[in-house]
């Protein structure tokens, strides 16, 4: 059983496990399936806006697709959530990627 199959099995046991869902999305990115990865990242962030790590990866996905407007939007949302949560390291990573994209 490969990593994607294992994570899918874990997700069947708890479909709202953001950690497993995020890990599965990253595996889809590695496999080149940005569409499924995007769907999973967006589901996480709709359900749990404070799941800071998914903002960066979702924004990077949009960058790869050439959708800079969406990437910018997700970086901004991530920075706001990181600020609210007091996650300075995550905020700085998001801000750095945002500035690299917009300047």
Give a verbal description of the structure.
The chain has helices at 3-13, 18-31, 34-47, 53-65, 68-85, 88-102. With 103 residues, the protein is mainly alpha-helical. The protein has one domain (3-102): Tetratricopeptide repeat domain (Serine Threonine Protein Phosphatase 5, Tetratricopeptide repeat, Alpha Horseshoe). Helix 5 (68-85) packs antiparallel against helix 6. The longest helix is centred in the C-terminal third of the chain and has 18 residues, at 68-85. The radius of gyration is 14 Å and the shape is globular. The relative contact order is 0.11. The mean pLDDT is 97.
Name the quaternary structure. Answer: single chain
Determine the CATH topology: Serine Threonine Protein Phosphatase 5, Tetratricopeptide repeat
Query: Into how many domains do the coordinates divide?
Result: 1
Q: Residue-averaged pLDDT, rounded?
A: 97
Q: CATH homologous superfamily - what is it?
A: Tetratricopeptide repeat domain
């Amino acid at each position: 059983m490969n990593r994607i199959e294992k994570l899918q099995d874990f997700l069947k046991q708890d479909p709202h496990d953001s950690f497993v869902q995020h890990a599965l999305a990253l595996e889809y990115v590695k496999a080149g399936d940005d569409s499924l990865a995007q769907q999973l990242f967006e589901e996480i962030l709709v359900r749990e806006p404070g799941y800071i790590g998914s903002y960066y990866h979702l924004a990077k996905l949009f960058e790869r697709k050439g959708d800079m407007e969406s990437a910018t939007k997700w970086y901004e949302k991530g920075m706001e959530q990181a600020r609210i949560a007091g996650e300075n390291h995550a905020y700085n990573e998001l801000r750095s990627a945002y500035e690299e994209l917009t300047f």
